[in-house]
Amino acid sequence: MNWQQDEPKVIDEEMLKQAIEEQGPQGQAGDISKKEGIQYEDVLQLRLDYRNILKIFHLWHFTSLTKLQLDNNVIERIEGLENLTNLVWLDLSFNNIQVIEGLEALVKLQDLSLFNNRISVIENLDTLQNLHILSFGNNAIAQLENVLYLRKFKHLRTLNLAGNPICEEESYKTFVTAYLPDLVYLDYRLLDEQTRETANTKYKYAVEAMQQNELQEQQAMEAQKISNEELQLHKDAFVEFLNGPQLFDSMFDEDPDGEKLALLPGMEALLESYPCKMEALCVQIFDAGLTQHAQRTAEVESFFTCSHEAVADNRQKAAQIAADFESSRRQKIVEMQQITDVELLEDNISSCQEQASQLSETLMSLELQLVDQLEDIFKDFERNISDMVGGFIEYVQGIFAQCRDLENQHHEQQLEIALATLEKVVKNELEEEIPDDMAMLLVDKDTVTNAVSASHDTHLLKIDNREDELLTRINSWMSGLLKSIHDEEVKRNRKRVSEIRNYVSYVKDELEDMRMSEHH
Predict the structure, then answer these.
(1) What are the strands, taking DSSP E only, across 325-462?
(2) Distance (Å, whole) CA 82 – CA 91
(3) Taking the CA of residue 31 as centre, how many other CA atoms within 13 Å lie in the half-sphere pointing to its CB?
(4) Do 390 and 439 form a contact (C-beta atoms < 8 A)?
C-alpha cells in the first residue's frame, strides 16, 4: 500500500481535525459543527487507521472517546492514552508494538486487539478487569504458562492466540481451556464440551491447587481493600489516625528526652493515665469528623441534584422552543422557495430574520433565568457548607485546646517528679538504681528543667501540627469545591451562549444566502 512508503508520522492537530471531519456529521449539522469548532471532548469514536503513525500523541482531550482505531500503522509504543478513561474498544493490531504498557487507566476497556505485533509477554493489563474480547494473534508469545496471567479476567470470553509459538505445543488447547474455564471462543472457534472434559481430566488437580491459592490471595486483597477504603474515608473526613493512640505515640516517637524522663521513679503511674485521656479526646474529634463528613456529603449531593434538575428543566423548555422554531422555519423555507415575487420574498426573509432574533432573545432570556436560579442555589449551598465547616472547626479547636491542657498538666507533674528525684539524688536519698542516660539529666536543676521543657515543646508541636493540618485541609477542600463549582458554571454558561449564537447565526446566514441568490 502507498501509506507504507510515506514518512512515519506523529499524531498532530491537522491529522485529528481531518479524521474528525471525515467521520463527522454532514449537511446542516456539519455546517453548524464547523462553525462551533471541533470539540474534542465530545467525540465518541475516532478512526486513525492506515495513516503511517509512529507515535501516539495529542489525544489527551478526547475524554469521552469510547472507540479508537489505531490499526495498520507503524506504532512502536503504547503511550498517550491515559486520559481516554471511557474507552471501551481499542484496536492496535498490525503495528510494531513489542511491550504491553500504557493501558492502566483504560479501566472500562472491553475489547482489545493487539493482533499482529511483536509482543512476547502478556502483561500490564491488571486494571482492565472488564475485558471481554482479547486478541494476541500473530505475535511472539512462546511461554504457555504466560496464559495463566489471564485467569484474573473474570469477564473474558473470547481469546485469540493463533499464530504464536505457544500454539505449536501439543497441550496448548487443553491447557488454555483448563486454566481459562470461562472462555467461550478460542482462536475463532467455539470450545466444545469434549475439549472441556479432556482439559478438566488432565489438569483437574493442578487447577484446584491454583484455585485454592487464588482464593487465599483474593481474601487477603479484599481485606486490604476494605482497610484502604476505610482509611480513605477517614482522610476524606480529615481525621485519619485519630481513632486510636497514633497522635500520642507520635508525640513520643521523636522525643529522646521524654524516653529518658519516662524512666524516672513515679513516672510509670503518670504515663498510664495520660495516653488513655489523650486517646479519648482524639476519638471525639474522629467521631465528630465522620459525622460531619456524612452531613457535608449529603449537602453536596443535594446541591448537585438541585442544580442538575434546574439545568435539565431549563434545557427542556429551551429545546421545545427551538424545536418549534426549527419546524416552522423549515416549513417557511419550503414556502419561500416557491415565491417568485422579489418583494414578497424579501418581506418573508426579513420576517424570518426577525423571528430568529426573537428566538435568540427568548433563549438568552431563559439562560439568564437559569444563571440567576443557579446563583441562588449556589449562595444557599455556600452558606450551608461554610456553616458546617465553621462549626466543625470550632469544635475541633476546642478539643485540641483540651489536648494541650492535658499536655500542660502532664508537663507540670513530670517537672515536679523530675525535680523531686534530683533533690533525692543530691541528698543521696534515692533508693532505686538509675540508668546512665538518666544520670546525665540529673546533674542540676537547669539540666532537668531544660530536658522536661524540650520534651513538652515536642509534644505541643505534634498537637499543633495535627490541628493545623486538619484546619488547612478542610478549608482547602471547601475553597476548592466552591471554585470548581463556579468555574464549571461559567464554562456551562459560555458554552450555552455560544450554542445559541451559532444556531441563530446559521439560520440568518442561510436566509442571507437565499436573499443573495434571488438578487443574482
Answers:
(1) none
(2) 16
(3) 10
(4) no
Q: Average pLDDT for residues 31-36, to the nearest whole number?
A: 55
The alpha carbon of residue 269 and the mean position of all alpha carbons in its chain are separated, in whole angstroms, by 50
- Three-state SS at 130: coil
Q: List own/partner pairs for 359-364 with CB under 8 A and 24 or more apart.
A: 359/321, 359/322, 359/325, 359/504, 359/507, 360/500, 360/501, 360/504, 362/321, 363/318, 363/321, 363/322, 363/500, 364/497, 364/500
Question: Edge-to-edge, what's the strand order for the sheet holding 158-160?
Answer: 45-47, 67-69, 89-91, 111-113, 133-135, 158-160, 185-186, 189-190
Q: Is 131 helix (H, G, I), strand (E, B) or coil?
A: coil
3-state secondary structure of 111: strand
Of residues 60 and 512, which shows the higher confidence score? 60
Partner residues linked to 166 by β-bridges: none
Q: In this predicted structure, what is the pLDDT of residue 517?
A: 73
**Cell 474480547, residue?**
133
Which tens digits make up the pLDDT trace of 430-466?
A: 777 777 777 777 888 998 999 999 999 999 999 999 9
Whole-prediction pTM: 0.69
Distance in angstroms (rounded) separating the CA atoms of residues 364 and 116: 54
Question: Which pLDDT band, with edges at 50, 70 and 90, does 245 fall under?
Answer: very high
Superfamily in which the 2-205 domain is placed by CATH: Ribonuclease Inhibitor (3.80.10.10)
Give the start-to-end residue ranges of the domains of the chain.
2-205, 246-519
Instruction: Please check the confidence at residue 334 and state whether its pLDDT lies above 60.
Output: yes
Alpha helices per DSSP H over 427-444: 436-441
Q: Examine the pLDDT at 31 and tell me if it is beyond 60.
A: no
As a whole number of angstroms, the distance between CA 262 and CA 257 comes to 9
Q: How far is CA 499 from CA 43, 61, 111, 229, 504, in A?
A: 17, 20, 35, 42, 9
Is the Cβ–Cβ distance between 328 and 352 less than 8 Å? no
3-state class of 55 per DSSP?
strand
| Summary count for the chain: helices (H), strands (E) | 10, 10
Q: Give the single-character DSSP code of 432.
A: S
The residue-averaged pLDDT of 284-307 equals 98
**b/e per residue 323-349 (b: at least 16 CB within 10 A):** eebeeebeebeeebeeeeeeeebeebb
Distance CA 261, CA 257 (A): 6
Q: Using DSSP bridges, classify how beta strands 53-55 and 9-10 pair: parallel, antiparallel or unpaired.
A: parallel
Task: Report the pLDDT value the prediction gives residue 158, as an integer from 0 to 100.
Answer: 98
User: What number is the average pLDDT over the span 222-227?
Assistant: 96
Distance, CA of 23 to CA of 21 (rounded, Å): 5
SS3 state at 410: helix
Assess contact for 138 and 164: CB atoms under 8 A: yes
Can you tell me which residue has the cell 470539540? 39
CA distances from 166 to 67, 114, 162, 417 (A): 30, 16, 9, 77
pLDDT of residue 520: 53
How does strand 189-190 pair with strand 185-186?
antiparallel
